Amino acid sequence: PLAIIGFFVALNWESLSKVPGLIAGADPLLVLIAFLVFYLGFPLRGLRWALLLRGTGFRIEVKDSTEILYLSWLVNCLIPAKLGDVYRAYLLRINSDASLSRTFGTVFIERILDIFTIALLGIAAGYWSFRTGLPPEIQVVFGIAIVIVVLLAVALFTLRNFGRRILVALPFPQRIVEFYDRFEQGVFGALNRRQLPGLALLSIAIWMTEAMRLFFVVKAFGFADVELGISGAVFVALIGSLLTAVPLSPAGLGIVEAGIVGILTLVYGVPLPEATAIALLDRVISVFSVIVLGSILYAVSGKPRGKGIAHRVEAPSPAG
Fold first, then answer.
1. CB atoms within 10 A of CB 295
2. Rounded to whole angstroms, how far apart are CA atoms 278 and 19?
C-alpha cells in the first residue's frame, strides 16, 4: 500500500504539492469538532457490545467494554486482516471467565450489524445525494451493497437452521462441534428480540458519527467548489469504512484513501488536491489519533496484562 501511495504521489506531484498548505489552512475548531464527534462513537460502540454480551449471559460495564474495544482498534490500525477483533475476544477472556467462543460470536454478529447498517445507510444516503440521477459508478456500488445484504441474510439463515447439522455431518472432532455450539450461542443469543430496536438505533448512531466526522472535516477546509452535504458525507464515509474490511493492510491503508479520493473526484467532481487533503485529514483523525492515544492507553491500562475487569457482574453462564 505504501508503494502504491508513493507511485500515485509521484504521478500527480504537481497537483498534490498543494496538499500540505491546504491541510495547514484547515479551521482548527472544526477539526476539533470532527475529532470529538468521531470519539463519541466509541462509548456507543462499547454500549452496543455490552448489550450483545448481556444477551449471552455475560455482563460488563460500558467503561470496560469501551476500553477493550478501543485497544482492539489500536491493533486493527497496526496489523492487517482485522486481527484486532481476535485481540478483543482474547482481552475479554484473560480479564474474566467469559467464554472465548461465545465472545467471538458477539464480535461476529456485531460485524454483521455494521455491514447491514453501512449498506442500508449508504443506499439511503446515495439515493438522497443523487436524487437527480444515479451515475453508473454509484449504480454498481448499490448493486454490490444489495448483493452483500442478501448474501448476509442467507448466511445467517443457513447458520441458524443448518449450521450444526452441516458441521456434524462432516468429519470434524467433537471439540470443534462444541466450539461451534458456543459460537452459535454467542451469535444468536446476543440478538435478543427485545434488544434489536436498541441495537439498530445504536448502530445507526455509531455510523453517523463516522459520517459527521467527514462532514466537519470538509467544512474545516471551507472549499468554495466542494458541496458535499450531509448525505454526501454519509455516502463517502460509509464507502471508506467498508473498504477498511479489505484485509490487505492495517486499517485499509492505501485502499481507503484511494477509495475516498476516487469517489470525491470522479463522482462529486472535487479537484484532486482538495480531495486528497480531505482524505488525509480524515484519516489522521480516524487512524493516526487511534495509534497515538491507543498506545498511551495500552501503556497505562491493566487489560492487556489480564488484571481483570472492574465492577464486573456475572450472569449465570457456563464458561467455555
1. 13
2. 9
In one-letter notation, the amino acid at residue 267 is: V
Place of cell 475487569: 309
Q: Which pTM does this prediction carry? A: 0.84
Alpha-carbon distances of 9 from 1, 5, 6, 65, 286, rounded to whole Å: 12, 6, 5, 40, 21
CA proximity to 289, closest of 239, 223, 217 = 217
Q: Over the stretch 254-282, which tens digit does the pLDDT of each residue have?
A: 888 888 888 888 888 888 889 999 999 99
Q: What is the mean pLDDT of residues 103-111?
A: 87
- Output the pLDDT for position 191: 74
Q: Which three cell numbers stand for residue 320?
A: 467455555
- pLDDT tens readout for residues 194-209: 888 899 999 999 999 9
Residue among 183, 155, 180, 153 nearest 56 (CA):
183
Q: In 3D, which of 38, 73, 81, 43 has the Cα closest to residue 61?
A: 43
Distance CA 277, CA 250 (A): 20
Q: What's the CA gap between 55 and 188, in Å, rounded?
A: 9
Average pLDDT (228-246) is 82
Q: What is the pLDDT at residue 316?
A: 43
Q: State the residue for C-alpha cell 501503556.
A: 299
Question: Using an 8 Å Cβ cutoff, are 254 and 5 in contact?
Answer: yes
* Per-residue pLDDT, 320: 40
